[in-house]
Design a protein that fits this description.
426 residues
Length: 426
């Protein structure tokens, strides 16, 4: 909204009590301009006319100054008062304003006000907001709100924000790392070269944790550049965190885009490609388990494929265990089928233990069935300990069977010693 209507509205608050009705083409009606305390964007509300208190009809807001409202009664509407708020000027970033916002116990109102301030942040007034945050007690909300401030600060003054985060922040451990990541992410969003130069100059270690924040920021605008930076990191936790940023970025373009990206990853780093694909499989399984299962089977045989298959089975069986079971039935590798079946059993048994038992009974008792049987026994033990013991006793591996029976018996003795002793004594 430009300033001209706002200035006219403010003048009307003081000098005009009557005017013309709005709604072009309608009959003129009484118009009253009133001064209204409040804040926010332009909005419209309706309230009854008869016996109305116009002051009570208007939403009350924060103490940051008045807004002007024009109140009109059109002839061709049911008796109502239309209150149209005129947008007030942006909230000034002053110590008193920031402190008042931070002291607000309503998290929605506080976040709304903070967001408005952050949109008007400058290198000069950023120091006022940081000082106000530092003077407030720490807490869960305060931590992520401050990281949001650091992200916004970095977009207008990357060097100043990173100097604060790494020098004056005085927070060690993960909290301190998150502050630096927030700054570098914001900085790299608008100035990727500057953020990368700072991060690389900070350490000679190729496993550069600061690059994680840079990659998060770069990924917002250029996923290919972010992918190239991720490929430069060695295997480890930092690369894993960078991969998370890439996966989230591609999923914002759609599940198909993420799946196609995972299928066509460049390079010869099979470990990195497997890590990326496994993460994509996990997220894709929530919305399209069949596509996720197909993608999982593109992984080379071994641990990565097994983990991906387990992820698909777990996610799919949370929503549709019977369909997930049908998919597991078609898996040709007995070892993969056993792992996937174990995940399905864990979810399906909570919903329908009878159907789960019927599915398990459709298979021969082989060593590959030991893990699914053990999972089923554990799942039904709280409600049906006798059946749990019987199922566990069908485990083929002697040590696994003895361990499973022992754990079930001990748990049962703690819950219901009399019944457990009676059964175990048979």
């Amino acid at each position: 909204m430009n300033s001209k209507p706002l200035l006219l509205g403010l003048a009307a608050a003081w000098f005009i009590t009557l005017g013309l009705a709005f709604f072009s083409g309608r009959t003129s009606a009484p118009v009253q301009t009133v001064e209204v305390p409040g804040e926010g964007e332009t909005k419209t509300v309706y309230v009854p006319v008869a016996g109305s208190d116009l002051g009570a009809a208007v939403e009350q807001a924060g103490p940051d100054g008045p807004r002007v409202a024009t109140v009109a009664v059109p002839d061709d509407l049911p008796p109502a008062v239309k209150i149209e708020y005129v947008e007030r000027p942006a909230r000034a970033i002053t110590r008193s304003n920031v402190s008042r916002v931070l002291e607000d116990n309503d998290p929605v109102a506080r976040m709304t006000a903070l967001t408005e301030m952050l949109q008007n942040l400058t290198p000069e007034n950023a120091a006022i907001m940081v000082e106000s945050f530092d003077n407030m007690p720490e807490g869960f909300d305060r931590g992520w709100e401050k990281n949001l401030l650091l992200h916004a600060w970095a977009k207008v003054d990357g060097e100043g924000a990173i100097e604060y985060a790494t020098g004056n922040n005085r927070r060690g451990g993960w909290g301190g790392q998150m502050a630096a990541y927030s700054v570098l992410s914001g900085w790299a969003t608008d100035d990727p070269a500057g953020a990368e130069d700072w991060a690389r100059a900070k350490t000679d270690n190729k496993d550069n944790g600061y690059m994680v924040g840079v990659i998060h920021g770069v990924a917002r605008n250029n996923l290919q550049a972010a992918t190239d930076l991720t490929y430069d990191l060695p295997y480890g936790r930092n690369r894993g965190r960078a991969v998370d940023a890439l996966v989230n970025g591609y999923f914002q373009q759609g599940a198909n885009a993420a799946a196609n990206w995972a299928r066509n990853l460049p390079g010869e780093d099979e470990r990195l490609k497997a890590g990326i694909t496994t993460r994509v499989v996990g997220k894709l399984a929530k919305s399209d388990p069949l596509a996720s299962a197909s993608l999982a089977m593109t992984l080379p045989e071994g641990e990565s494929r097994q983990k991906a298959i387990e992820e698909v089975a777990d996610e799919w069986s949370e929503e549709a265990p019977a369909r997930a079971a049908n998919w597991v039935d078609d898996l040709q590798d007995p070892s993969l089928r056993s792992e996937a079946m174990t995940e399905v059993v864990g979810n399906w048994a909570r919903e329908d233990p009878e159907a789960t038992a019927a599915w398990l009974n459709s298979y021969e008792r082989t060593p590959e069935m030991d893990k699914p049987f053990e999972r089923f026994a554990r799942s039904i033990a709280p409600e049906n300990p006798e059946s749990a013991m019987i199922w566990a006793n069908q485990i083929q591996n002697d040590k696994r069977r003895e361990d499973a029976l022992g754990r079930l018996a001990n748990d049962w003795l703690k819950r219901d010693p009399e019944a457990a002793r009676a059964f175990l004594g048979q």
